[in-house]
Amino acid sequence: MQRLSEVKTGSVVKIKSFENDDIVLKLMEMGCLPGEIITVEKKAPFGDPISILVAGYHLSLRIDEAEKIFVESL
After folding, report:
1. H or E segment at 67?
2. What residue segments make up the domains of the chain, in order of their start?
3. What is the Cα–Cα distance from 20 to 13, expressed in whole angstroms?
4. Confidence (pTM)
């Protein structure tokens, strides 16, 4: 497993779990649920924010939010 913040652009991954933190509820409300497939679409020049495709829509996450999501490669 790795953190979403470490995944390279163009990769497709599956959400496995979250780091225990207050932001988990916010992430789940945005469609970032365990088992959901994510495509990392773009990263800003300095890596923050990142753009992902999840649950059929585009979402931008700050790097500190992406660090809270543990994923596995498909």
Report:
1. none
2. 2-73
3. 20
4. 0.86
Tokens at residue 2, please? Answer: 């790795």
- Whole-angstrom distance, CA of residue 10 vs CA of residue 29: 24
Q: What secondary structure does DSSP assign to 11-42, as a single string? A: -EEEEEEE-SSTTHHHHHHTT--TT-EEEEEE
Sheet-wide strand order for 50-54: 2-3, 69-73, 12-18, 37-43, 50-54, 57-61
The CATH superfamily label for domain 2-73 reads Ferrous iron transport protein A (FeoA) (2.30.30.90)
pLDDT, tens digit, 9 for 90 and up, residues 30-42: 888 899 999 999 9
Q: Which of 71, 27, 32 is nearest to 54 (CA)?
A: 32
> Rounded to 5 degrees, what angle do the CA atoms 63, 25, 37 make?
65
Query: Rounded distance, CA 66 to CA 72, Å?
Result: 14
